[in-house]
Amino acid sequence: MSFEIILFVLISLAAVTSAALMILQRNPVKSVLLLIVNFFCLAILYLLLSAQFIAIIQIIVYAGAIMVLFLFVIMLLNLGDEKLLAEENIYKKRIAYILGTALLIEIFAGFGLPFMMSDIMVNPRAADIGTIQTIGRSLFREYLLPFEITSILLLAAMVGVIILAKKKFQ
Amino acid sequence: MSISNIPIPYYLALSAVLFTIGMVGVLTRRNVIVVFMCIELMLNSVNLTLVAFSAFHGNTTGQILVFFVMAVAAAEASVGLAIIITLFRNSRTVNIDEFNIMKW
Q: What is the pTM of this model?
């Protein structure tokens, strides 16, 4: 057992626990905070995979920008306890858990036991592909057109949000 | 930076578990904002798969795709939350079972 394996196990336990608590939590603000914990765990896993740029972007964009947006909306709507919402539908919940277990079994069956037990390692070339330099070179050469289209997508989202939030539709 | 010695299937297993948790959350929760957060969780688990495969193949394609997924997720979150605010203004609730204005 090396140091990295122990770190991986601890971080993945934290990620799974925070995700499970997030969907069991009744208070939406606590759900948001647990999801942020989960995003930080994923950022550490990206660092273990030597994807530094993605790890930083994960913290800045996801944990920083998107989750703050969620918190703002929750505070704006002034939501209370979810118990105040409609009555529990116990059958729906049970079916959801059965479907979830079925999906998990299906995914692991799809991988197959020999693959899960194999120790396919990280490619040695992967050491320096996660840097901003490599990602940026790839982004502005092979993927220049998708990058520019992304800016149009963000502009469209911005305009759409302003129009949606401004008008009072009846 | 040195290479870690964690097998790739470990990352895939973790990603599968996180995706399943997100799906169960989408099916069980009634607060539309929490359902939205579960979708973000599912997107993130797929991102973990993409980064793991990128490290496995030793090229940047997977990480570039994660970059675009994040851009799309940001756009999707902002538009979705604006729609939720408009729905709340209209019906004073965030219960997903009560939204049936698209039904005909």
A: 0.90
